[in-house]
Amino acid sequence: MAFQIPRIHFYEIDDQAWFPSFLREKVQACLTLVWIKRFPPFQSSSPATLIVKTLQSLLGPSIKDYTFIDFCSGAGGPTAEFEREINKALELESIEKYHEQTKKST
Questions:
Q1: Do 52 and 86 meet the contact criterion of CB atoms below 8 Å apart?
Q2: For position 71, what pLDDT does the model report?
Q3: Is 33 helix (H, G, I), strand (E, B) or coil?
């Protein structure tokens, strides 16, 4: 017999209709901040950067062939940071390839 863990259903209080909108914006800003900022004593880099590094190591150069869909991130969450980090890496890779090609041609 398999051991079953009961499902625990959490909900965000700021998603409730009665929750003040000015506080909802603060909660969403804090959640985004936790994703994109690094807290030096505890993290070597931000959680968003760690996820991007994981995606890059798993998908490699084919990362640009994928479409990433963001569900349920409220005010955008870390999506913009993911995009910035991935595009920065792809741009750097493109520049490196360009320099390699120009060295070979000279």
A1: yes
A2: 61
A3: helix
Mean pLDDT of 60-79: 76
Inter-residue contact 47 to 74 (CB < 8 Å):
no
Q: Per the structure block, which two tokens stand in for 60? A: 């490699």
Q: How far apart are CA 2 and CA 87, in angstroms?
A: 44
- Gap between the Cα atoms of 30 and 51, Å rounded: 19
Query: Distance between CA atoms of 3 and 10, rounded to whole angstroms?
Result: 22
Nearest to 84 by CA among 50, 47, 52: 52
C-alpha angle 80/17/70, rounded to 5°? 20
Q: Mean pLDDT in the chain?
A: 83
pLDDT over 90 at 58, yes or no: yes
Alpha-carbon distance of 68 to 83, in angstroms, equals: 9
Q: Cβ–Cβ contacts within 10 Å for residue 74, how many?
A: 15
pTM of the predicted structure, to 2 decimals: 0.66
